[in-house]
What we know:
- The structure holds two protein chains of two kinds.
- Helices cover 40% and strands 22% of the residues of chain A.
- Chain A is an alpha/beta fold.
- In chain A, helix 9 (196-213) links the parallel strand 7 (184-188) and strand 8 (216-221).
- The radius of gyration of chain A is 23 Å and the shape is globular.
- Chain B folds into two domains: 2-47; 73-333, MetI-like (MetI-like fold, Orthogonal Bundle), CATH 1.10.3720.
- The N and C termini of chain B lie far apart (65 Å).
Amino acid sequence: MSKIEVKNVYKIFGDSPSKVLPMVQDGASKEEILEKTGHTVGLDNVSITIEEGETFVCMGLSGSGKSTLIRHINRLIDPTSGEIMVEGTNVMDLDKKNLIEFRRHKMSMVFQRFGLFPHKTVLQNVGYGLEVQGQKPEERNKVAMEKIEAVGLNGFEHQYPNQLSGGMQQRVGLARALATNTDIMLMDEAFSALDPLIRSDMQKQLIDLQSELKKTIVFITHDLDESLRLGDHIGILNGGRLVQVGTPIDIIMNPADDYVKAFVKDVNRARVIKAKIIMIPPNKTNGMDKSNLIKVEEDQFLEEFLPQVVCTNANCEVVDKKGNIKGYITSKELQSSLTKS
Amino acid sequence: MQKYKKFLKPFIYSVVFIFFIIISYRSAKPRYKPENFTDIFNDFSWLINWPKWLDFPLMQPLNSGFDWLIIKYGLFFEGINNFLLGLYTTMKNSIVGLPWPIVIALVIFITYFASGRKTNTTVMVAFCTFFLGFLSPRYWDKCIMTTCIVVIGMLLCIVVGIPIGIAMARNKKVRSALLPILDLMQTIPSFCYLIPGILLFGLGAVPAIIAIFVYAVPPLIRLTDLGIRLVDKEVIEASEAFGASKKQTLWGVQIPLALPNIMQGINQCTMMSLAMVVIASMIGTRGIGDEVLLGLQQLNVGMATEAGIAIVLLAIIFDRITQSYGEKIQERTQQKKKI
């Protein structure tokens, strides 16, 4: 059973969405609907499955419906039609009370502009999820302190959010999401408002935390590099439609349409492609010059050994961690994988 | 069906309009009307000057309705009257009974703690209070009466206004229903409800309190509504995403963040109450306002001005106390960035 399943979700914004729904289901385009009925199509037949413990990155330009999609998972927005299953329960069937319980214990959220409470201290902000659950101050402060330490903000717990820098504020947001100890974390463009250096710093912190905690993360971003770095799977949205779902390599090597192609056009392939992706198996290396070889590990990115190859004009021998030969890479493979299609 | 929907409203309006015209025609005195109904369409002279039969009869039903209200619900208004009057007299008598230095000390005490121990504000308010009696010893008791009326009126505004403001912010329908009523309350001349106030509550402090309520509650409601709606949407979303119930979001997030605006509303409310209490002196409300009235009636410019200054001082006292309390809250919620 998948952790989160979104099945055929439609979302139409406007006065009478249910009347417009059949038109959308018949395949009318977003522009057509807007012109004819004045309704905006937010999501158009989106289905995704997210497995436990993975980071699913949802990518698209602004207006593509990615923030709408993530808000469907914890029902901050109700879909016009469709089902959302989390751990096998249909979120749409929950009544008010159960929905509140569900939000308290199943998932937490990090926001683009942090969404911190300006009138509460860092400690109170981080403990907010526990506060609404009704936990006593001593208990929740203890947990909150642990999380503040986990994101490296010790000493700032009695400051107010606007006394902190942007990066620090988002750390508070992250700590707040971690404090309720939920399995699922929703991150809505969590790092988009930060400057590049802090952003990559935060990405690293998230990767480190994730390798330890193994949560199911749904991450929204408009930045391809970020999604390639963080995502186990990436879903690309365009105008409310899901264009392509796949691993980072899939997306780069086989873009589904022009929209995705335009997205991946400028990406630095050498930083994303691993040696094991492009190597050819040992039995197909007829006539290869094996006199001049460089050893590379299968999980290394091309970027890491490319300079060496260029300087020595050698071929590569790909090995796994134990040193067994897994395959070879010649300049031909390098050339084809690095050429922009 | 969909096609005709947009004609529905104009249709209803025109039916009501025609109904009104028929009513006005039928209720007009026979001597104002043409002898025969059809004459209207033969002789068009009524199009030049406004015809006397085209007169909507609003005054009569209002009068009889008001009479009916007094007869039927007299006890109810009597109850309100007794309650407010009792509150007012106890409050007034207990303060008037105190020696004046103790009253000044009390004001200083309140200001000092409401302003978060600001010496400047406290000293200024203390001087203003002293000058009330210093201007003319007669003013001291009258200022206390006025203060009591304003305070009770304000409490009434806060108790009723803030919950209404919150309801407006949370529900679009409530807002669109209440906005025209608020406009009405703010634009209708105060004498229109001062006079009925006398009929319902008698002369004195109670109609003044009611008038204060009608006049001063709209800005408080509006600012509460605005303050709550201005709270950052993402912050509300964050609260909801962590499983806060509506009540928890309201008390834990929305009200604390709207507090600066609400305090501004209370401040506005006080200032308008003070303005109204002077007008209310014309319906026999005792207080500093009747000194102004007396001065005007005797063409005694000095007396009127002196009393006017006392009112200004009173306004400063109220303003400083409520304002500085609001600032204190604001400092707490929106901490300045340390450099």
